[in-house]
Specification:
Length: 290
């Protein structure tokens, strides 16, 4: 079994690979500013509106504080990380019949079955998958959803249980007795990532006290995400030059593993050139049982 100490050593010992002067894809360890949770100044419970907020209300009531952190490149070291030990994992050489990424229904018809198959074959113990939504993000001025440059986790333990009850109400009591996980499948859709790569924290280095539940207010219900406070013991990673054939698995919750949750964020890599291609990506969110 890989211990937390061994995992930290793996993270720290990743060899930096120098960027080629002919490459627009930064490689090796980056040092970049990440935005962490800062509590509401009035001491109130933190909240955030998912859709446009009511008139007179801010989008959220909490702040952020920036810290410079080293972010280690896992390219070439993918096998050192797993969902069970680090709450993230990788899949390479995946193929997809979806190429346009403009029609949600077509994405559901073509890409969703591919994602379901990948999860069933790559997540140990998985025997059932329910994909419940997806988000396409584009780092362009007029995009409806841009990369999120704030450290967060998409779910909390309570919101994960609520997801099961919301999507599978008739089976929830039985399903909640077994192992259930929420896993995001993240990938670029416009070729290799040159800007706004995704950083993930090795979950074994993240303390429970670093995580703060944030009310996530939808038009018809209230969920929760987790804000993440900075701590110097956290170890951060990214997967340089992710391409259309790569899949990054982000585990947001695991009912059988209290450390099975991965903080993540897009970040601005200071080594990205001014002509770097704006990143476009899709994340599909899944309930995984078994």
């Amino acid at each position: 079994m890989t211990t937390s100490t061994q995992t930290q050593a793996q993270t720290q010992n990743i060899i930096s690979i120098a960027s080629s002067p002919f490459s627009s894809v930064p490689r090796g360890t980056a040092t970049a500013s990440l935005s962490f949770y800062s509590p509401p100044k009035d001491g109130s419970e933190p909240w955030n509106y998912v859709e446009p907020q009511p008139n007179g209300q801010p989008q959220n009531n909490f702040g952020t504080v920036d810290h410079q952190v080293p972010i280690h490149d896992i390219r070439g070291h993918e096998s050192s990380f797993s969902l069970d030990n680090n709450a993230f994992g990788t899949i390479q050489n995946a193929v997809s019949g979806e190429t346009e990424w403009t029609d949600d229904e077509h994405i559901k018809q073509v890409y969703y079955p591919e994602v379901e198959s990948l999860l069933l074959s790559h997540v140990p113990g998985a025997n059932r998958v329910l994909l419940f939504d997806h988000t396409i993000r584009r780092a362009s001025p007029n995009a409806s959803r841009a990369p999120v440059t704030r450290v967060h986790i998409d779910q909390t333990p309570s919101s994960s249980e609520a997801r099961v009850r919301h999507h599978l109400p008739d089976e929830a009591d039985t399903l909640l007795k077994g192992r259930y996980r929420i896993i995001n499948v993240w990938r670029p859709i416009n070729g290799k990532v040159e800007s706004h790569p995704l950083a993930v924290a090795d979950s074994s280095t993240v303390r429970d006290e670093d995580l703060v539940p944030v009310k996530h207010i939808y038009p018809d219900r209230v969920g929760a995400t987790a804000g993440v406070k900075y701590h110097e013991a956290q170890k951060w990673c990214y997967w340089s030059g992710m391409g259309n054939e790569d899949r990054l698995l982000l585990q947001c919750f695991d009912s059988h593993n209290g450390k099975g949750r991965v903080p993540h964020t897009a970040f601005v890599d200071p080594r990205s050139g001014e002509n770097a291609k704006p990143r476009e990506s899709i994340e599909v969110r899944a309930l995984v049982f078994g």
